[in-house]
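Bug: token stream looks shifted between consecutive jobs. Job 1:
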Amino acid sequence: MWCEEARELLEHLISSEAEGCDCSLLSGGVDTSVIVALHPRRERLRAITVDLGGEDARFAALAAKLLGLGEHLVIKPSIEEYLEAVDWVLVNFKTIDPIEVSCDVVHYLSLRAAKASGCSCVLSGDGGDELFVGYTFLFKRAPEEVLEWVRERAESSRLPTVEVGERLDIEVRTPLYTEGTKRVALGLPVHCLTDGRQGKLVLREVLRRRGLEELARRPKAPVNVGSGSMEVLKSLVAGASGEGLDFAPPSRAHAWLARRLSSLTELPPRTGGCPVCGRAVRRNYCTFCGAYVKGGRVLLHYSD
């Protein structure tokens, strides 16, 4: 399937999936901007952005203005509200992975606000990076490696906003990650996905066709970076110590989160799987500390 044909089909699929929702998360990144741009009644759509000092707020405001959205709700949490969100994530997901926590905090804050404002259904960009090659580490890989990675993610991917929504009892839809969009993505050649410098080319073209060039050119910004959540977390963990924990935390953030979790509930039991924290490893990933492990060796891990 060629890029142009895929773009047209994707526009139809995304628009159809989005139609029934009255609210959408909006980071101003490619994924959420495409979803709100294709919503058939966007003049009645409420968009929700979490502003913790990152770049998302500016891009989201631009998207809301250019697309004529019905309402743009910008959430600016206090430190107390941020800490409450951290505790909610720690207790519900039993993880001290700083990347996971700082991302899920944003999902929690945005969906809690959506529910409080009366949203019946919320749209999310989950799955866009997985199906349409949004991660920078893929850009320079051989085409067959990229396509194999997409095939694996099409079979199974974690959709964190959906998981948070389930716990908050609010419906979350992912128009970029449906059976239809999976079929389209799996039929795409690599040149429709990445040119070696950026990814999601077919989605960026959707925005360009609507005159949204600045949004189409925006580099990948993970939600914890774009929102500013990671910087807030870093400011909170300065000086944290791992003394007294049952493992040697690889960062101050791990130590601070582990201590905070242990004050709320028991830490997950040690099973010997992860060489960093001793917790269980599933599909080469330790859900507790966030280490990627293969052959008993840590391949990737957050550190200060």
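Job 2, same session, no restart:
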Amino acid sequence: MHDRITIPKLAVGELPELKGHGRDLRIDACRGIALWCIFLDHVPNNIGTWLTLRNYGFSDAAEVFMFISGVTCALAYGRAWRCEGWTGVISRTLRRSWDIYVAFLLLTLACVILVHLAGSLADESNTRILLDHPGATLARAAILQYRPVNTDVLAVFVLLHLLFAPLLWLLLRAPNATLGASLVLYALVHSFGWTVPAWPNGHWAFNPLAWQLLFVLGAWWMIDEDKKVPPWVTSRTTLILAVLYLLFSLVIALSWRIKPLEALIPQELARLLYPLDKSNLDPLRLLHFLAIAVLAAWLVPRNWRGLTTPIMRGAIRCGQNSLPIYCLGVLLTFASHMVLLDISDGLAMQIALSLAGIAAMIATATLLNSISIKPRQRS
């Protein structure tokens, strides 16, 4: 942000700063851990997934990543609005959308090159059609209708950043009504099957019309935290209900993967709950994430000492460089899958690839931080 610009007098609601002084490192830590979990979950048949949320409930790291992105957008573009007005917000959202769009196209090309060189995974990565019909497929990718596996979230963020300026305008003037409209859109998606056009099969791994709810919820949460959050959200009753729901989802999720537990779950209930619709953000997934958020708010204060540990510092660095680290994670997923197929898929190799991938992400984030800090020190 530009310190030399005078902050305008606020006529409507005022965007908050984070509580206390300085940056809230919990935000970066959560996003960094989510990036690690996304990488581990994307590698097929990987023992590392037992360290992520996916096997222990209805939601996974994708919900965390989407919600935190809404939080960070409210903070970043909110500061731009305070310092530069709406012109600054619009210019920054357009610039960030362009950055994500370019990253998406480059990642698409990198994935297809990697698959071509390896001579495998064309079908699993949804790049077969790009290899067979590069011209038409790249044209579809340019308008976000075609996406290789694991790149959908970038296309979603292009759209969400493009629309964030009007969203921020609405949140400042009618935050609860804006969140309500987002919830209504989410309900209509589940009622009528609305989605954004996609090619060639019309499927989005993350339907933007459904997943926008978590993004808007994160932004809404930060617009005016003290005035907008009802007391019951942080009450002990809500905490107890959240814990009970997390225990219920834990038993159900484990029953899907552990045969002895499967016999304990009524088959009618199992058929009702499985499979959960991730593409349209199944309501059970949404409730599971909200329960996790309530529990995290109780257990992880802003001054939590764990944030100073080496592993959490690595997560914070990854969270501060989320776009390049996400792209790197996608490429590491491809590379790890190829190693498991061509060399060994044993337990030791799975552990080695999981640890090496996270280490590579931390090392890259550390390098990016050092590159961005040095020019500031010279200036």
